[in-house]
């Protein structure tokens, strides 16, 4: 897929030129202004004529005036000819540039499909330069690189020396090519609030890495428009810390063989982690979810930390499995937060959590300590059918209204403090 170009009638805008009508209007107006200015300047230098009755022009004077008019017309025509010649040159250069870019693109794609890794590395370098010099090719080149990373590749096993920080191209050349492709995406999608959008940053790019095999993936500080990592397999640590997704971020069914880092990540659109598997733990500390967040049936094999995260929309953790400890301390749920039939294998803390909407733990199971100290429930709390292997603690927890819509686990209940505030009390 190659970039689309503007229509012919809009070509002058693409080239940064004025339209023909506007160019000639400006040229003629400038010529008239210069002629009038020259007339007044000559009159000032030679002195104004006496206000006597003007005499009829002689034949010689009429000829001189005609020469002046013809000179003016010729000057405007010459200026127009120069403008047309310049526009033709610019259009020719632009057309030649497009032809050259198309040729370079074709060569880069062909090199990327070569059977030798060194040639494929050259193809990636060529495509990267092309997209840097020609913004119209940036999404196209990104699509090609993503397509390459979606091609089948055996996942390195834990402890495999091929996963070293500097892989040996002689022993595993394909791994080197794939790491180079990942670094290309990293380089051109990285920007921060401090660097003021570097020239290497490609704005508005979408990633499609569905089912891709990604090795030691580093996406720190990257800012794509949207990204799809559905069913992707991350071998080694995967870092998305401080990344920003303007639109949807799809991680449904993704597998993280080691740690998955999403600290201070911002999700501007829906964040989908349904069925994702974090084998080595994950961190979503201080993450910001702008819309709905889906973690249904997600599996957290190690510790899972969401400390200080904010959910502006609904958060769904129905059926999630937490094998290690899970921390939701100081999390803010502005919408509903559902943990129906979720299983918490290790110690679980919801200290100082703010539930802005309904909080549902119906059918959930807590295998170890469950701590809700200082939590506040603005909506209805649903703990019907929740199972606790150890004792649950609601010390200093509050609810916005002590009505019968709440379903608290025994032996806790809400006791009114004011007309619209209740304190969680443990029955003796």
Description:
The chain has 428 residues and is of the alpha/beta class. The protein has two domains: 8-46 and 64-112, no CATH class; 202-426. The chain contains six helices and 36 strands. The strands form four sheets. Strands 6-10-14-18-22-26-30-34-36-35 form a ten-stranded mixed sheet, with no helix packed on it. A nine-stranded parallel sheet has the order 1-3-7-11-15-19-23-27-31. Strands 2-4-8-12-16-20-24-28-32 form a nine-stranded parallel sheet. A hairpin with a 2-residue loop joins strand 35 and strand 36 (421-426). It is elongated and about 125 Å long. The N and C termini lie far apart (71 Å). This is Pentapeptide repeat-containing protein. The chain crosses the membrane at residues 23-48, 68-86. Keywords: Membrane, Transmembrane, Transmembrane helix.
Could you provide a short overview of the structure?
InterPro entries: 5peptide_repeat. This protein is an alpha/beta fold and 428 residues long. The protein has 6 helices and 36 strands.
Class by alpha and beta content? alpha/beta
Model regions low in confidence, pLDDT < 50 over at least 5 residues: 5-9, 158-169
Instruction: Tally the helices.
Output: 6
DSSP, total strands: 36
């Amino acid at each position: 897929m190659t970039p689309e170009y503007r229509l012919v009638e809009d070509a002058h805008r693409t080239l940064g030129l004025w339209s023909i009508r506007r160019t000639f209007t400006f040229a003629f107006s400038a010529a008239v202004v210069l002629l009038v200015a020259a007339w007044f300047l000559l009159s000032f230098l030679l002195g104004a004529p006496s206000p006597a009755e003007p005499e009829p022009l002689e034949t010689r004077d009429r000829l001189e005036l005609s020469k002046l008019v013809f000179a003016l017309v010729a000057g405007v025509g010459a200026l127009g000819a120069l403008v047309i010649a310049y526009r033709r040159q610019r259009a020719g250069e632009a057309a030649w540039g497009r032809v050259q870019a198309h040729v370079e693109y074709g060569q880069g794609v062909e090199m990327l499909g070569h059977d030798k890794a060194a040639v494929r590395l050259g193809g990636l370098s060529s495509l990267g330069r092309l997209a840097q010099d020609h913004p119209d090719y940036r999404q196209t080149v990104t699509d090609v690189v993503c397509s390459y990373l979606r091609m089948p590749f055996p996942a390195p096993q834990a402890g495999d020396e091929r996963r070293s920080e500097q892989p040996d191209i002689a022993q595993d050349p394909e791994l080197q090519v794939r790491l180079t492709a990942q670094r290309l995406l990293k380089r051109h999608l990285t920007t921060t609030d401090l660097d003021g959008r570097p020239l290497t940053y490609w704005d508005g790019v979408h990633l499609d890495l569905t089912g891709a095999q990604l090795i030691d993936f580093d996406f720190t500080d990257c800012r794509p428009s949207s990204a799809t990592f559905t069913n992707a397999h991350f071998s080694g640590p995967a870092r998305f810390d401080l990344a920003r997704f303007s639109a949807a971020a799809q991680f449904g069914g993704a597998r993280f063989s080691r740690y998955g880092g999403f600290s201070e990540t911002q999700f501007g659109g829906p964040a989908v982690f349904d069925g994702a598997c974090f084998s080595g733990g994950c961190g979503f500390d201080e993450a910001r979810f702008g819309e709905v967040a889906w973690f249904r049936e997600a599996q957290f094999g190690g510790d899972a930390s969401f400390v200080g995260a904010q959910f502006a929309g609904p958060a769904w953790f129905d059926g999630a499995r937490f094998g290690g400890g899970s921390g939701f301390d100081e999390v803010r749920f502005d919408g509903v937060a559902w943990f129906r039939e979720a299983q918490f294998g290790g110690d679980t803390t919801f200290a100082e959590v703010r539930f802005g909407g309904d909080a549902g733990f119906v059918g959930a199971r807590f295998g170890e300590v469950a701590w809700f100290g200082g939590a506040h429930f603005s909506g209805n709390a649903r703990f019907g059918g929740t199972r606790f292997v150890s004792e649950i603690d609601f010390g200093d927890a509050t609810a916005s209204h002590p009505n019968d819509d709440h379903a608290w686990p025994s032996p806790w209940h809400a006791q009114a403090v004011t007309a619209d505030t209740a304190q969680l009390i443990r029955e003796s």
